[in-house]
Amino acid sequence: MTPAETSTTKPASKGLHIGLWVAQGLLAFAFLGAGLTKLTMPVEKLAAQMPWVGGALGPWVRFIAAADVAGAIGLVLPAATRIKPRLTALAALGLVAIMVLASITHAMYGEWDKIAVTTLLGALAAFVAWGRSTKAPIAPR
User: pLDDT tens digits for 77-111?
Assistant: First the structure.
């Protein structure tokens, strides 16, 4: 019997599960949109909208986009199918790392207003990582 299965462990509330699913959905929507934009838009147009694309990180823009899309899929698909649902927490941790790096990049370019968005997205991803790994994990099939 694992510690999560002991009789003294209180199951996660339905509200927490709903809150995590809402956070997962919002994050998936945001990262899928951002990732697909960076994957499909010509680099010249991206550079006009995102100064870092014209800088040293420019060659990495498609890789970053693929990581955004993979993270978005990882937030929802494993949990929804209950096939390897622990991957959802790992995807959320990966998105936390992306947001930390994005915040550093925005600070380097003096884009202080964008750091609020990356901090919010990172905090939501951290909430999902915590919730799906410890407090309200989804049981595999």
Answer: 999 999 999 999 999 999 999 999 999 999 999 99
CB 131 within 8 A of CB 20: yes
CB–CB of 77/71 below 8 Å? Answer: no
CA distance 26 to 5: 30
Q: What is the per-residue burial (b if ≥16 Cβ within 10 Å, else e) of 24-36?
A: beebbebbbebbe
71: Cα within 13 Å, side-chain hemisphere: 31
Domain boundaries, the chain: 14-135
Nearest by Cα to 57 from 113, 105, 116: 105
